[in-house]
């Protein structure tokens, strides 16, 4: 026979619930603040004059906020052009990666047998190579293709780089789509491709958006390939240009660097903000169905 | 349905636009216009505004005077130059003229990626730069870079704090000994009060600082044996500077422990706030100090202490090299000669707040002014030597895998001198052996 604790009176339960909810909100607020701190500090640094950057007790809100760092960053380095290049390669890489990965992920997710296992295994193994090892062979391959110093060459690299991750992610989404829907489409006479395009792909939309977004961010932030593959200054991407604010032995042009880095984080934030509602909407719509 | 059609149309339009714009961005440019003009690419690591301006201006002047040999300025970065160059060399796409530091050149020179400059440079340039500087870019029989800018370590000091303490201030002619420096630091720390320190050693990258200052104590660490192989031997001379730093941090408590793992820039707020009286920094840090120091903050430049080895320091100058693969070595050498004419060398030195290597540039009055410590720096120039590890193959790997963690642990007090010696010698020689088979 087990003994159960006596139930708390209703008033106490309500109080506990209220405290519990307040605690949850407090924890959430603290977490959000924790996440936002680096970004806020970056913004604070970006609008500080040089004299305040050297202060022993730096303030969150500068005494004399200035846009001078932004002016200097734009004056000294081609940030807009670099941002344009980054945007082009990141969008192109994201779009192509998703276009290639979606049917491939469908095949991996829906096929049972040795080939699917092998393909999945290869995806995992391909992630184990550090890209420092790959860069020289890759450089030579792209050189033979006459794609060194072209943004298309970089797009190609980013697509290849993002594909395993995109495949992995999308295969999970495909598995979550009930087979019965596809079987129903087959009964209605739809072929594999038609089923994928008309039935499965719309249900995959949230997954495709998330995958594209991550592929975009991977390409947007990537530095090393862009550094070694692009020779002409006018083709350099934003992460490469950001390193021009750094000197030897840890020296940095801190104010303009913070200003440029702040601007570099904005596209990712904007994209997340724009897409976030669609992702949530898509996921919820799937749940209701 | 209408919504779906609209989305498809929009997607198609976005894709078409993207392809059109990307294609436009990916084409054009072209390096060879087919008009007989020689085109060279100059990879520059200048990063401070004045320095970038000086470099770009010199490139413009060259292009204006030499329409047949056009030079394109390509901005590089100190943090990634080694990997960038290695890949470019391997892929046969290296820039024609390369700005780098001499301690990064050894593997490229031995690997055959850089042109031997001995027959390419004019006598004017060769004789203007002292032999000690040329040694930094001489590997085996060849010379693989023109050393043109260098910086000694100096003590940047809070003028009011050090002057009010009544201690004797060192000069280039009469610097402190390392022993005196320890005593001065004790005196200063006592007078400064709790939570404040005479010295801050920002030793995020401890190896180059330790080895370069070690020359003044007679330290050498790397010994070339008969047959040309290099072995590491940690002697008394190699121990003096590390011992002073370790004792200041752990025993005397005259140096801040918290700043040990930081870079030079990180020490500046504490320096400006009066927390540290002196910070050993590269000569070029004066630019940041002049820019960031609060109103009324007075600072001065003092020479580093010296030991039995005399007032010498190791340096790894900035260099200009020519890629072995370039088809236009003579033109590239002519461009380097132009960049490093005495007046131009002065412009580059002022832009970077560094010292020129050339004797003629060093004599320029603009670089001998008392203001901002230029005079102290130029007085130290005669004691600058090739950094101890300069021509040692495998040095970067030894530095990263063995020496950096060993010195960091030693300075923090985690290991003793025996363990430091064991790691530098035993583990270090294993690394070097792989490069000297």
Automatic annotation (TrEMBL), chain B:
SUPFAM superfamilies: Periplasmic binding protein-like II (SSF53850). It comes from the Bacteria. Keywords: Signal. InterPro entries: Bact_solute-bd_prot1, SBP. Residues 1-27 form the signal peptide. This is Uncharacterized protein. The lineage of its organism: Bacteria, Bacillati, Actinomycetota, Actinomycetes, Kitasatosporales.
